[in-house]
Amino acid sequence: MNLIIVESPTKARTLSRFLGKDYSLEATYGHIKDLPKSTLGVDVEHNFKPEHVVVEKREKEIKRLREQATKADKIYLATDPDREGEAIAKHVEEVIRGQEPEVNKKTKSKLKPLSSNLLIRRIVFHEITKEALEEAIEHPRSVDKNLVNAQIARRVLDRLVGYKLSPLLWKKVRRGLSAGRVQTVTVRLIVEREREIAAFKQEEYWEIYCNLKTQISKLKTEEFIVKLIKFDDKRAEIKNKKEAGIVVFDLEKSDYKIADVIKKEIRKNPYPPFTTSTMAQAAARLYHWSSKKTMSVAQSLYEQGLITYHRTDSTYLAQTAVDKVRKFIEKEYGGQYLPDKARFYKVRSKVAQEAHEAIRPTNIGMTNDKFQMTNGRFVSDAKVLYGLIWKKFVACQMVDSIFDETVINVQAKTTPEVKDLPTSRVYVLRASGQVMKFDGWRKVIPLSKYEEPGLPMVGKDEALDLVKVLSEQKFTEPPPRYNEASLIKTLEKLGIGRPSTYAPTISTIQVRQYVEKDEGKFKPTPVGLTVNDFLIGNFESIFDYQFTAQMEDDLDNVAKGNRKWQEMMGEFYSPFEKKLESVEKKAKRVEIPVEKLGKKCPKCKDGELVVRVGRFGKFVSCSRFPDCDYKEKYLEKIGMKCPDCKKGDVIVKTTKRRRKFYGCSSYPTCKWASWNKPEIKGATEKDKEIKKKTLSKLYAPCND
DNA sequence: CAGTGAGCGAGCTTCCGCTTGACTT
């Protein structure tokens, strides 16, 4: 009997379909051994010796593994082909051979002995196909000690950072706080962005457009709009109303002609197939899903066998899947949509570990109209996400979409009658647009807002008539706050965190109340700012954006056997330990700023009312707590009257599930409620109108 | 995950990365 051990039970089920009766499959459900939860578990005095214990939740799996092992002659450790998978493989072997006391005590005596000629071997494969598995079984090896050491180093370093710094925060800031290589940097990104926004100085600028007319026949004229881009060969930068007025004055007294018309063909590649990160970004942008939700929906698709594994950083595609989709494209859309050769996508991230494939449908014939989930709780959401994954995958193996781009440059010269000007001025104005002439992969993922640019047919030197000059006041905008999509994108780019941790990390920093989501955007809280400044101020090097990248380089060397992991840890730990000691001794406890309401406490008449944040959100309390325990509800007004009853104020409230919504302060008399912030109407209508007329951006880029 | 309305609350906690289930703050 042969036993194959993998990490995911779904993977086990899929593989069992390929294999005959002489193979059985078991899943570990992730790590089965780890450092203990309630102690450090690292002996820093003795070369960082880690203490690995059985993960409590996995005792059932371990028991089953051992039982199955007694029936086997050959065991294949087929955990994922990466650092973590190698460590799991080692732990499985230890557990099966009964090398840990806790397992021995509880279960060993009850179990039958292992087969005397038992072979335990490590195998790896990158795609879940019969061929890949058979190939892997042909080339078994033993567990790679160096790769396991790299995992130990990663684990120990994270444990030391997290379990040394968190208690320091309890002492110096507040109980229950936490710090870590990943979460602290994530908060740092949000804090620094917020400060950039606060420091941002808005600058005024103006954009100028001309509505021009061309004679297309004796009876017909056509109007189009051009945007000012240059004057006297310099980029047109118009800073205020006065400057804009001068330009408008000039343009109203100018002669217009076509300077040139440039046409070129533009080919656009399809996007790579989804990874965890890009899938989460797409679902966030298109449907405003949280990464947690996207991952849950993807999990249900994976469990139904509809998609490949959803926690991956790889864009690798199995050859068999590519062959099938190529046949599908040819049959369904025709040969002109099929490239000569299959497309390959390079992995973008340096730290990608190539353990899994890209996220793709397992059966390309399962089109969205045939799609049906037999069970699960996300039936309609699953269909939506599946459609996205399906389209992305099919499109990624189709030919380029082709556009004709036209750029019309118009020259405006002030007429000689304008006498007040020192010299005559030459302006360049431009209209541009792209027309799709062959859809290619856009057949499957159509452009979201495609409009024909509607440029006139004009020739060089053709004279034009001015209809109207339009000027528009604009202001430069600060960088945007992060949302889940842009945060994940940034983390991935920095190599911080893994596909399995993006969603949990985003949850953690919110549960700790370091950041909060406001209309989908992340803002730091006073706690977040205080903790960030404390940690960055004292431990800059660990939370440097480059730290993880450097760590990965070191781990690579450990994995290659070029370096001892204990040596790497020593280099990290000795300066860190010194710093810890000095901060422990010298740093004062820092106060988290509280928002003051500027009112005396009605109970003790001595303290002041302040806003505090408890487990369930904000509340008002006396500044003299715990001497005075006065408290009341916190009402967050947004400075607007209720749009329904017009009497109460609009206030921010939260549901039982902590979701934010807007309500009326005179509830329950007035029952008005809304998920979205009520908008002040009128202000943006004009903006939209002008934007619509601008030819420079006729359609929004569509990345879905 | 879907989720629209009480009143609680501020002192024994924490990391990252694998994997699923599970009614909760």
TrEMBL record:
Entries under NCBIfam families matching the protein: topA_bact
EC primary class: isomerase
Family matches, as PANTHER family: DNA TOPOISOMERASE, DNA TOPOISOMERASE, TYPE IA, CORE
Site (Interaction with DNA): H31, R154, R155, D158, Y163, W170, R311, R512
GO cellular component, one term: chromosome
Keywords associated with the record: DNA-binding, Isomerase, Magnesium, Metal-binding, Topoisomerase, Zinc, Zinc-finger
Domain Topo IA-type catalytic: 144-580
Active site: residue positions: Y309 (o-(5'-phospho-dna)-tyrosine intermediate)
Annotated protein name in UniProt: DNA topoisomerase 1
PROSITE patterns with a match to the protein in the record: TOPO_IA_1 (PS00396), TOPO_IA_2 (PS52039), TOPRIM (PS50880)
Pfam families cross-referenced by the UniProt entry: Topoisom_bac, Toprim, Zn_ribbon_Top1
Domain of life from the UniProt record: Bacteria
Function: Releases the supercoiling and torsional tension of DNA, which is introduced during the DNA replication and transcription, by transiently cleaving and rejoining one strand of the DNA duplex. Introduces a single-strand break via transesterification at a target site in duplex DNA. The scissile phosphodiester is attacked by the catalytic tyrosine of the enzyme, resulting in the formation of a DNA-(5'-phosphotyrosyl)-enzyme intermediate and the expulsion of a 3'-OH DNA strand. The free DNA strand then undergoes passage around the unbroken strand, thus removing DNA supercoils.
